[in-house]
Amino acid sequence: MNPTITAATARRVLTQLRHDPRTVAMLLLVPSLLMSLLRFVFNDERAFNHLAPALLGVFPFVVMFLVASVTTLRERTTATLERLMTLPLGRLDLILGYAIAFGLVAVAQVGVATGVCAWLGLDLGGSLWTVLLIAVLDALLGMALGLLVSAFATSEFQAIQFMPLFVLPQFLLCGLLQPREQMSQVLHWLSDVMPLSYAVDALGRATASADMDAALLTDILVVAGCVLLALALGAGTLRRRTR
Amino acid sequence: MANSAVAATALRIARTGRDVLRDVSFTVPACSVNGLLGPSGCGKTTLLRAIMGVQAVTAGVVEVLGHPAGHPGLRRRIGYATQTPAVYADLTVAECLRYFAAVLGAPATDVDRVLADVDLAGQRDRLVGSLSGGQRGRASLAVALLGEPELLVLDEPTVGLDPVLREDLWSLFHRLAAAGTTLIVSSHVMDEAARCDRLLILRDGTVFADDTPDGLRAATGETDLERAFLQLVRERETV
Q1: Nearest residue to A135 (alpha-carbon basis) of A164, A149, A115
Q2: What ipTM was assigned to the predicted interfaces of this complex?
Q3: CA distance, residue A66 to nearest chain B CA (Å)
Q4: Which residue of A80, A82, A240 is in closest CB contact with B88?
Q5: Which of A8, A9, A86 sits opposite B54 (nearest CB)?
Q6: What residues of chain B lie within 8 A of the CB of A98, using their CB?
Q7: Which of A43, A190, A234, B61 is at a distance of 20 to 30 A from B52, taking alpha carbons?
Q8: What is the reported pTM?
Q9: Where do the structural domains in chain A lie, given as residue ranges?
């Protein structure tokens, strides 16, 4: 691993995005737009306050999953990945370069969405920074999973379809639609192994009270651990030598 | 074998149960322009990938600049241009080159040098995606030239270029060879064979001929290399 190469890779990914202003606009505004829509669907501050914190994590998670899986798939299917694998670039340089670039985008995306939510009347208690941290972790989780699953897609059609396959089950089981305790044993067990469940739990706890308690810290650590695990597995899917 | 840049011995590569290359042995002399020729699908790209160390080898050995192919120490010493241009369509030419120069640890001035070499200085601030196919291929070639590698492995670098540009590139290849670079250049058109110092002709995954253009002419009694090639095919088929 080489910090100069990692930084150059992050800069390159951000430069690529800069040449695509429409994608940047969508990355920054779509979660905020969805949150605004949600506010008017409920037309009730209490219901909005109940759901919004969790969705503040879920929307960036979904968006980043899609963007990351398509971007890295493009790198794999055009010859650029093969070229990079013949150069003095470590696999972690590439993965971390992507993580840093998309992490910065996630910070901006979540920052805008949180600001819009506050303006729409979301009461974040005293824990704005904790909520921001968790939401950025959620976005990074989406990015890391997107990077990872792109290894199993051979076309962009497949990559796009991994979204409903990997993301929607996590959304259904994360406790947003039905409290996890009320699910059947099997579903509860499934939701226990899905990282988004911990992210949504953490956001619920962080908005319910301003204190950082052990349960909240555990949730955050689980999500962060999943991000690192997915990034490591993603690096493992990059092969220097192929058949 | 101090004078050979690349040496392959009894190389066999099987992909999806089929031998793409079998019993391929050859050496590539240093500081020369070597043509890898043969019809489409004869295994040229697979052989070049094996030299780069990105192709899994079934049997045999490929030695590159004194190391086994794919050795980490070779990553700064070989320049590689794949058949499909390996450049980022959503970057400008200069941004793209700056990125690869940073990965290689090549000086920033290298970007201007390689742009001039491939005659793309005028396009440096254009998005790669907006370039013509031939320009994109030259942008990819420019990346391979970064860091002044000792060995250049170029997969069909002249496809889709007009005759003037093709001429320019071949004289660039010879300038580089004169300065001490070894080049392996693949092509499927025989009229480029005459520009090479040595020819390695593949057919159906085996070495069909390994000679200088003059040697090939003398062996077949033909002056035109395309006819010489056809003559060889006929001779072998009647045996």
Answers
A1: A115
A2: 0.92
A3: 18
A4: A80
A5: A86
A6: none
A7: A234
A8: 0.91
A9: 3-236
